[in-house]
Recover the amino acids of this structure.
């Protein structure tokens, strides 16, 4: 573009009254080859892009590609979140249950595709925003966005970088092809508060401000998670267990049960001595599930002292100071079930009560199992003959 | 077909979409001047009324957030009530706008051009109203961002198999895409406003808003293609959004919700309710702003036909619901369906049927399709009926669940009603503001259907690909 010559010319613009006149004029003006030609219209006119020799818009391809990218991005995001980084099983399905990811894949495909169609078209293809385009400052613009149509013959950049336009020939050509009036549109002075660069900077500033405040919010929540209003149910009108309360006379927040209340599975046990307990009989049948249950209870609670076989070979060290009974001896084999039950309930010597740890049915199951151990560990040769 | 048009019988001729003589210039003068003049007194009265309602709604929302959602009538087992009813209702209202702007654009239904802008704006405002309800339903709305997959100090992610998370993506995508679609359509119109206005401040605002649109043919080429693609994309989107909303119900195992008919049934219901709302708002706007030459009785006639068709599909869907319940051989589904018909809320079920299926049958009569009192009566009935339908689906199905000991009759509170009214207030406040600030008719789209606008199309008199 030329440097000094007063005003530089952008284009010679002819205004047309109707679409018919414009469409007829385009091939005639184009044939004269006076410079690049461009039409300006208040509404899209079908077929005008072919007449002007414009290429087909590539926006469809862009949209297709970005739609596929969006769908794949959604699949990767969901798969990575729910199957890799924080694996969650939902409804017994496999971790990478892609079927459940389809709705969001569709939505992100739509989002990517439509933003490409919108912003890709405006910014990448149409190079908007431009606020000081020569045409915007021309007198013709007000008619173009209203009801007139314009054909512009633009200045060509010559071989030496100099602007070339034959103003008279262009004006003549436009008038001859039916233009109502012709305007010579110069380039504007490079000035003004609302320059494209200013707007670009303003948008960038807003974007940076959004990012900064977003990060500030993120770190704020992270560093001060329990400041009001983000108290996350930290303070609630609620009494914790064992907490005191001025509401009740005794100052305790928890209420004792009504006198005589019996909890399920905790029937009172009135027998005082082991001999009195001898009359109790085992209510459970000697079946395999009962013995399995008894084995589990024995290994959990009894085996650690009495030995896994009940032979008193303890896993405790001598430092414990007490020696657990060998349950395989004749004395214990002669015990009635009730006496063992009483020991479980009340404890004996150094052995504490297991009433709180072993529920009723498990006590009788473990007695069956002790009997089985006694029989197994005192087997005779005759048993082989069976 | 142009030459042969007059040989066709009256019923087969394309309806006249414009009355009297309209030129591009007179169109701009008529449509754009409403943004340049002071609003009439009636506008101020209407605005005061709707803004008061909106204020009431927001005060009650503030009260809800302060006190907790216990101020609503929701309680087990009816944990979803007005909040989700209103959400589904408003999202549905929005669907008509997208249908008109996108699907009818693909079908080249030229009557859409006059009403598309207004309907799209209603879409955006309706989705804004809808978005409020799930937000306040979570109780602590400032933590709603937990629904989004962002890296957090807890190291956890949303469960993407949950329909509620699908909903977040569907509705936010719907809002963004609708806004983009609306904005793209507005750009050339804002450029016209920029070149009309004498106010220097507004000129800068409009110039920035339209991104310096100059109407060059090389821009229109991309714009036209992108708009067409967006219409195609939005078509898929509008069908998906209410389907995803219906998944909130259909994917659960609750009798009355767990049905495969739900997605199409919801989409049709949404379009139905949306068209009714468009008819009401458009009738008021047309009369108040004097656009009777651009939005003709033919437009209303077509919209009423759509409403009638949708009403018939709704009737079919209701019958299918009954059939599915009967055919399921499942006593729980039988019970839920019986609750619709003669349960606690039986009268709401029958009212729904009357409003959505019976009353719209009036529109079979051509005279009624062109009568404002009748069409507004039908549209109001449909609006009420579609709200009641969501009430029946949600509350009737929930209030008697599997454990009879837990059955509970739901009663909304005044706060519930207040917030519902507030959402209507917000919606119409936004519509009123829009009507004064932006062109309610897409002038650049209208210009494409004025005579002489498309020489290529008119030259192909034997019937171009579009007609």
């Amino acid at each position: 573009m030329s440097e000094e010559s007063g005003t530089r010319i952008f284009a010679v613009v002819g205004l047309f009254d109707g679409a018919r006149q414009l469409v007829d004029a385009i091939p005639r003006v184009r044939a004269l080859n006076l410079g690049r030609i461009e039409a300006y219209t208040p509404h899209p006119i079908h077929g005008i892009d072919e007449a002007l020799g414009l290429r087909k818009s590539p926006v469809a391809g862009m949209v297709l590609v970005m739609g596929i990218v969006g769908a794949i991005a959604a699949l990767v995001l969901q798969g990575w979140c729910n199957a890799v980084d924080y694996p969650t099983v939902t409804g017994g399905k496999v971790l990478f249950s892609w079927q459940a990811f389809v709705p969001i894949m569709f939505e992100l495909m739509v989002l990517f595709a439509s933003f490409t169609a919108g912003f890709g078209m405006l910014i990448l293809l149409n190079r908007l925003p431009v606020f000081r385009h020569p045409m915007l400052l021309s007198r013709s613009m007000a008619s173009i966005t209203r009801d007139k149509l314009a054909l512009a013959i633009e200045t060509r950049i010559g071989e030496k970088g100099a602007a070339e336009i034959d103003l008279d020939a262009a004006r003549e050509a436009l008038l001859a092809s039916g233009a109502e009036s012709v305007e010579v549109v110069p380039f504007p002075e490079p000035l003004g508060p609302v320059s494209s660069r200013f707007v670009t900077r303003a948008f960038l500033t807003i974007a940076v401000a959004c990012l900064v405040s977003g990060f500030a919010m993120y770190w704020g929540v992270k560093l001060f998670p329990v400041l009001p209003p983000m108290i996350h149910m930290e303070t609630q009108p609620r009494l914790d267990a064992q907490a005191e309360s001025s509401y009740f006379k005794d100052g305790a927040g928890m209420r004792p049960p009504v006198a005589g209340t019996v909890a399920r599975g905790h029937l009172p046990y009135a027998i005082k001595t082991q001999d009195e307990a001898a009359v109790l009989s085992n209510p459970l049948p000697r079946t395999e599930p009962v013995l399995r249950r008894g084995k589990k209870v024995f290994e959990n609670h009894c085996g650690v002292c009495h030995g896994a076989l009940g032979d008193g070979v303890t896993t405790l060290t001598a430092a414990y100071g007490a020696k657990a009974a060998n349950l395989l001896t004749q004395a214990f084999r002669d015990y009635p079930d009730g006496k063992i039950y009483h020991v479980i309930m009340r404890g004996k010597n150094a052995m504490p009560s297991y009433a709180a740890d072993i529920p009723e049915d498990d006590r009788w199951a473990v007695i069956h199992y002790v009997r089985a151990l006694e029989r197994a560990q005192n087997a005779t040769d005759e048993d082989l003959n069976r | 077909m142009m030459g042969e048009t007059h040989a066709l019988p009256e019923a087969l001729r394309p309806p006249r979409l414009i009355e009297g003589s309209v030129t591009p210039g007179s169109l701009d003068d008529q449509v754009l001047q409403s943004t340049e003049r002071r609003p009439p007194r009636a506008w101020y009265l209407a605005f005061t009324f709707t803004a008061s309602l909106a204020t009431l709604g927001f005060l009650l929302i503030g009260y809800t957030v302060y006190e907790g959602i216990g101020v609503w009538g929701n309680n087990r087992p009816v944990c979803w009530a007005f909040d989700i009813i209103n959400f589904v209702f408003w999202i549905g209202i929005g669907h008509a706008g997208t249908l008109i702007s996108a699907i009818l654009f693909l079908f080249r239904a030229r009557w859409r051009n006059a009403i598309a802008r207004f309907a799209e704006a209603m879409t955006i405002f309706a989705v804004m109203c809808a978005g409020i309800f799930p937000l306040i339903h979570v109780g602590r709305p400032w933590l709603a961002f937990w629904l989004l997959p962002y890296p957090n100090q807890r190291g956890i992610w949303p469960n993407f198999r949950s329909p509620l998370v699908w909903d977040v993506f569907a509705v936010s995508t719907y809002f963004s895409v609708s806004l983009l679609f609306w904005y793209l359509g507005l750009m050339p119109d804002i450029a016209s406003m920029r070149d009309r206005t004498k106010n220097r401040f507004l000129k800068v605002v409009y110039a920035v808003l339209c991104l310096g649109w100059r109407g060059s043919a090389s821009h229109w080429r991309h714009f036209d293609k992108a708009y067409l693609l967006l219409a195609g994309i939005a078509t898929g989107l509008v069908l998906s959004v209410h389907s995803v909303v219906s998944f909130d119900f259909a994917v659960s195992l609750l009798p009355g919700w767990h049905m495969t008919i739900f997605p199409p049934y919801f989409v049709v219901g949404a379009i139905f309710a949306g068209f009714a709302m468009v008819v009401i708002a458009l009738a008021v706007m047309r009369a108040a702003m004097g656009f009777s030459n651009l939005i003709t009785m033919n437009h209303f006639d077509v919209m009423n036909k759509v409403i009638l068709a949708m009403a018939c599909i709704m009737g079919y869907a209701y019958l299918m619901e009954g059939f599915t319940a009967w055919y399921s051989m499942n006593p729980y589904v039988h019970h839920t369906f019986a609750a619709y018909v003669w349960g606690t809320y039986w009268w709401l079920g029958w009212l729904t049927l009357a409003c959505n299926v019976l009353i719209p049958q009036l529109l079979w009569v051509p005279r009624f399709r062109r009568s404002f009192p009748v069409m507004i009566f039908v549209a109001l009935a449909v609006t009420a009926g579609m709200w009641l339908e969501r009430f029946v689906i949600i509350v009737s199905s929930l209030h008697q669940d599997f454990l009879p000991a837990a059955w509970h009759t739901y009663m909304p509170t005044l706060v519930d009603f207040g917030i519902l009214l507030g959402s209507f207030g917000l919606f119409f406040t936004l519509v009123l503001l829009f009507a004064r600030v932006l062109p309610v008719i897409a002038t650049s789209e209208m210009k494409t259907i004025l005579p002489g606008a498309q020489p290529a199309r008119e030259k192909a008199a034997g019937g171009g690909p579009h007609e």
